[in-house]
Amino acid sequence: MLIASVDFDALRKSDCQIKLFLSATNVRTGKVKVFENKDITVDSVLASACLPHMFQAVEIDGEHYWDGGYMGNPALFPLIYNCNSQDIVIVHINPIHREELPRTASEILNRVNEISFNSSLMREMRVINFVTRLIDERRVTDGSLRRMLIHSIAADDEMTKLSIASKLNCDWNFLTLLRDTGRRVTETWIADNFDKIGHESTVDIQKQYM
């Protein structure tokens, strides 16, 4: 299915206009591995989405990898250091905040997974917030640090209604529901925030991530 849907040869070409970074977790070292365009293969895609309680680790060049969410979900630093754009748009698939306390075993497991997979993003956002303060307070003026503009698209109202079983739901009607929800939320976000791109962040990092 991946081979039929993705032109991997085009992605790996040196003149490819799309910059793609996939993160995976090295099982042996516990470090994040970022696959760039030249490294993108079917195996690297599978490695970036390999959940250890469901699949065996994916082996690439003698190393074994699990889902990148454990160490970078997503990894933002490749975008900061390898791209010219000042804007980063984060599309959330796991809710950060839940009102209701999980009580059943499945609810607790689901929430543990959500917190675990959001933790690496939270850490990176703290760093971005720290760097932004250094720039605002003119404690760094030599241009060695970049001011990043952060944007966030989330459908937490819809996502918090889904159970842990929904993560394994491949029913076509459910998938199209997710697609349509994503498009609706994104269209609303674009209408409200498009003019701010390139000028200011549209998310309060301190409030949402710290």
Q: How is this structure best summarized?
A:
With 210 residues, this protein is α+β, with helices and mostly antiparallel strands. It contains eight helices and six strands; from the N terminus they run H-H-E-E-H-E-E-H-E-H-E-H-H-H.
What Rg, in angstroms, do the CA atoms define?
18 Å
Instruction: Give the low-pLDDT segments.
Output: none
Shape: globular
The largest pleated sheet is described as: 4 strands, antiparallel
How many individual helices?
8
How are the strands of the largest sheet arranged? Answer: 2-1-4-3
Work out the number of β strands: 6
Keywords:
single chain, alpha+beta, 8 helices, two-stranded parallel sheet, 6 strands, 210 residues
Overview of this protein structure:
The structure is a single chain. The chain has 8 helices and 6 strands, in the order ααββαββαβαβααα. It has a 4-stranded antiparallel β-sheet, covered by helices on one side. A two-stranded parallel ribbon has the order 5-6. By secondary structure, it is an alpha+beta fold. The relative contact order is 0.11. Helices cover 40% and strands 13% of the residues. The protein has helices spanning 2-5, 8-12, 42-48, 77-82, 105-136, 156-159, 172-193, 205-209; strands spanning 22-26, 32-35, 58-60, 63-67, 87-91, 149-153.
